[in-house]
Structures are given as structure tokens and as C-alpha cells.
Inverse folding.
């Protein structure tokens, strides 16, 4: 039985198995939008960053998906949804593709059936909704089939554990790579905050000796989609026609150097640095103020962990100016999925210890 961890976010998908950790977009593009791809055969198979996927539950259509997905001038199938997202066809197809993407690293998946247990998570407010857990388990438990570039993969999901999303970051900080609780972890006996900034939501939680403190909690629909929409709006005001998904690619690709440019036609290059940095600063200030107003007991907190796929889009000095005890989690994009995976390992270690005692 293999352990798969899935963080099926609104903007990004983070996946983990014993073989690999992967980050992909939470949207895909109908293959017809691409036309005939790579007709010059210049891309080597091992260098490809997108592939053709067919989900068994939506077998009429082929989708292009992968970390190198090109969304320029293309209609995108998006899974961002604030209304019963986990019961939509788009989310279920995304789940199929995610399972196949992890399964492709295991020979059993293409030669037979790969048996797996899945750990995943949902925003805190969604966790208390019976329908949410039911829809996620309905989407994941059972046999899934999908093809990737014509190769079939079959996965049988035996069990699904659903955690509160910020718990993933807490477990990642508490548990080592082998599934053992660290002796020097700062969460188990402390009062800490976890601010999880994703594509759709900003989840502000606090844990007191690992118990959820409901007095210091909020969940806002202010994820990175809000940032990308504002940047797009500023660009539209200047006469540029561009989609939210294209803006996201520009921001993520330029974020390391904080230099942002865009070529709408391959002839001219437009410098967007001033627009994007200004909107990032404004977005950072808005998130910092939301955190400040939520944590009524900040003076008693040991630290506040800042995590999620959007944490690296904040301007850190601007955030830390307001939230002085903030600690930005290393590799925050994958912190939750690492925590989900370690949760599975922790349970395996606990089960072995109980069996031997």
C-alpha cells in the first residue's frame, strides 16, 4: 500500500509520494486549444513539461496539464469555486489527474492496479461541513483510471484521511521526514498562529498546545486570485488585454528577481514591475491587517507561521513591519502536503509501536 498526499488547492496542486514532490496548476486546458503540438518534434520526451491526460470519468476529452502549461490566448478549465467545489466534475477530474500523476512513478500502476491510502486537507471552515468531507471522499475513494500520453494508469484508493489545511504546516514543523515527532519542535507545547495563504482563501488559525483556538480564527476569500485580478485590472486600464491566468504566470515567473515583463505578441516587451510591486505591497498590507485584527491574543503567541502557495508573493518586510513575530515557512508552497504525508507516516509509526508493545 502506497501513501499519497494531495493538496488540491484553488490555484496550485501539490502532490507527494515516497518517489516525488510535485507542484502543478489547479487548472488544465482542452487539448483542442493547443492544436497539433510540437509538430517539429523539437521537445525531447524527458524534457517535456506538459502532457496529454484523459480521465476515466471524462473520457471524451483530452486535457493538457503540467508545470509548464501555456495559458496564453487559451480557454482554461478552472477548478476555483467557492460553492460546493468538491462535488464538481472539474474537481473530480483534477483528482483523477493528480492520482495518475503520482502513480506514473510506480510500475504497478501501469501493469496492474496500484493500491494507495490518501491524506488530504481542506480549509478550516470547510472541515466542519459534513457535505465537504463526504464529497471529497466520494471523489477519491475507489478505482481511478487515467492515461498520460497514451499510457494507462490505474489507482485504487482504499482510504482517505481529511485534515484541516493549516494542520499540515503544523505537522510539517513538528514531525521529521521519518514520521517521528521532533524533540525540539516549537508547536506541541506553545501558543502559535498559522496563516495559510492559498489561491482561494486566507486561513488564519491559532493552536494552543496543538488544540485549535476558535477565538483566534478567520477564513477569508482573499487568496492570490484577488491579487491577480487587481493586477489584471490595472493592466486593462492601460489598454492591455490579458487573462487572470496569464497574470499569474507573469507574477510567479518573475517573483525570484522581482522583475516582471510581458510580451503580448513576441515583438514588444512591456515592463510590469511597478504595477505588480505596487499591487503586491497593497495585497500584503491587506493580509497583514486581517491577521492583526484576528489575533486578539498576539502578545501571548510564541510565533506566527506564514505558509501556503501565496506566502512567497507577499512582500516580507512589509508583512513583518505589522506582524513582528511572523516566520515565513521554508518552501511554503509544499508545507501542507509535506505535513499530510508526515501525518500518514506518523500514523504508520504509531501503529507499529502499538503492535510491538
Amino acid at each position: 500500500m502506497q501513501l499519497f498526499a494531495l493538496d488540491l488547492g484553488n490555484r496550485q496542486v501539490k502532490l507527494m509520494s515516497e518517489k516525488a514532490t510535485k507542484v502543478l496548476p489547479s487548472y488544465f486546458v482542452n487539448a483542442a486549444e493547443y492544436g497539433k503540438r510540437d509538430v517539429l518534434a523539437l521537445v525531447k520526451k524527458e524534457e517535456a513539461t506538459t502532457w496529454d491526460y484523459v480521465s476515466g470519468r471524462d473520457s471524451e476529452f483530452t486535457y493538457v496539464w503540467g508545470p509548464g502549461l501555456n495559458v496564453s490566448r487559451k480557454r482554461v478549465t478552472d477548478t476555483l469555486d467557492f460553492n460546493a467545489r468538491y462535488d464538481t466534475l472539474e474537481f473530480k477530474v483534477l483528482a483523477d489527474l493528480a492520482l495518475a500523476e503520482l502513480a506514473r512513478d510506480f510500475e504497478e500502476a501501469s501493469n496492474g492496479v496500484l493500491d494507495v491510502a490518501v491524506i488530504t486537507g481542506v480549509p478550516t471552515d470547510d472541515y466542519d461541513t459534513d457535505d465537504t468531507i463526504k464529497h471529497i471522499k466520494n471523489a477519491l475513494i475507489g478505482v481511478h483510471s487515467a492515461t498520460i500520453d497514451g499510457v494507462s494508469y490505474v489507482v485504487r484508493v482504499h482510504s482517505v484521511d481529511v485534515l484541516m489545511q493549516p494542520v499540515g504546516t503544523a505537522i510539517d514543523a513538528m514531525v521529521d521526514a521519518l514520521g517521528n515527532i521532533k524533540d525540539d519542535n516549537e508547536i506541541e507545547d506553545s501558543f502559535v498562529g498559522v496563516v495559510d495563504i492559498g489561491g482561494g482563501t486566507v486561513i488564519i488559525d491559532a493552536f494552543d498546545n496543538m488544540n485549535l483556538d476558535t477565538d483566534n480564527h478567520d477564513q477569508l476569500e482573499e487568496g492570490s486570485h484577488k491579487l491577480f485580478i487587481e493586477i489584471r485590472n490595472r493592466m486593462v486600464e492601460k489598454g492591455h488585454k490579458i487573462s487572470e491566468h496569464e497574470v499569474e504566470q507573469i507574477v510567479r515567473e518573475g517573483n525570484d528577481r522581482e522583475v516582471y515583463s510581458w510580451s503580448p505578441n513576441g515583438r514588444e516587451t512591456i515592463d510590469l514591475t511597478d504595477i505588480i510591486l505596487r499591487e503586491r505591497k497593497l495585497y500584503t498590507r491587506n493580509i497583514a491587517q486581517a491577521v492583526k485584527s484576528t489575533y486578539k491574543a498576539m502578545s501571548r503567541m510564541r510565533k506566527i507561521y506564514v505558509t501556503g502557495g501565496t506566502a512567497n508573493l507577499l512582500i516580507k518586510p512589509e508583512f513583518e513591519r505589522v506582524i513582528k513575530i511572523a516566520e515565513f515557512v521554508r518552501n511554503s508552497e509544499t508545507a501542507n502536503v509535506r505535513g499530510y504525508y508526515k501525518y500518514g507516516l506518523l500514523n504508520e509509526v504509531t501503529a507499529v509501536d502499538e503492535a510491538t508493545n
Summary: The longest helix spans residues 273-294.
